[in-house]
């Protein structure tokens, strides 16, 4: 059947990106559906779509940057957090600055 | 074809360009660029006209931005601009320098040096500084453990000097593989009595190279102003005749190795303002033996601003232009070697850096 995903591909999740991240990558969208079984895989997928986006979201620890939070179904996540099929993911920046 | 001068301005909220013809009487301001990221240093490759802006965003980390069309469009990258996994992450880019062959260097916080040979597209860590035996004993200055001054020898691609707060001046003669301290003769007044001339740990604020290729360097330090005639192996105080020993930026005359501009402030524990609230740039024409205040056109009275370490530059025109930007957002220009000044942009964000590029078009 058209559109059916291979058995070894994770189910897609829906990720929403902040505008000041999206503006750094020409062609990037505020919302994107990606197959990913963990937050780390999700970041891999974003970086494959828009090369360089990994460095904007993660540091070399490696970890999600200190002033960025990723929420999965309403809970704050880490790179290792698993993603259930159809998860709602928000990439959110901290309120800071002057 | 006519000469134009571009003043490249880094600010806490993006990069700006001020542009004029060679008369430097009328200026056009463009910006903010780089998505208003905090931008610590904007430089140009004089050979190609390519602009580079280094900075770091609290959310998204460090990056070097690039424009090949004099600011009309910008891209950014930080591929490879990272320490090994597990190290304290690179927070921001503090200083940039372009070698004669187009090789680009970036100094970062926490202090380290990176090199790009593809115009800023990707970066390689030159880890010699991390391996220096003094590295475990470096302690950050007020602005952090920052590699803020990056000096390349135009005659020898292997010679690099860096200024790190508050670790001091270091030099490499093998392209950044190995380094030695170059602080002899510079004071550390903040150390206990009897320990004021250490091998390293001095709080260098700005390091610049004089033209002429004779290895002359100048530095503004937290504790004094200095000249070196041997590539930094020894330093001599040149602060006598200045209103204080404290300031941040230094800028050399483009052609005269004896010409230097400084902006002394009222002192490190007195607010770090223009002395008595009167703004002045101080110039020597004899390598620091004597000094003269240049204040015509600068605010006199009520000038409680400072000028940060990378925020003064000269241009290569004749007579030389001199430029500085304040932490209060005022950008000042002189088209006559500092004799008279005009404010060419009064209300920018806090200015972190000023550089120039002269082009023909």
UniProtKB/TrEMBL annotation, chain A:
Official protein name in the record: Molybdopterin synthase sulfur carrier subunit
Organism: Ancylobacter polymorphus
Record lineage: Bacteria, Pseudomonadati, Pseudomonadota, Alphaproteobacteria, Hyphomicrobiales
Automatic annotation (TrEMBL), chain B:
CDD domains from the UniProt entry: Sialidase_non-viral
Name of the molecule in the record: Photosystem II stability/assembly factor-like uncharacterized protein
Originating organism: Ancylobacter polymorphus
Organism taxonomic ancestry: Bacteria, Pseudomonadati, Pseudomonadota, Alphaproteobacteria, Hyphomicrobiales
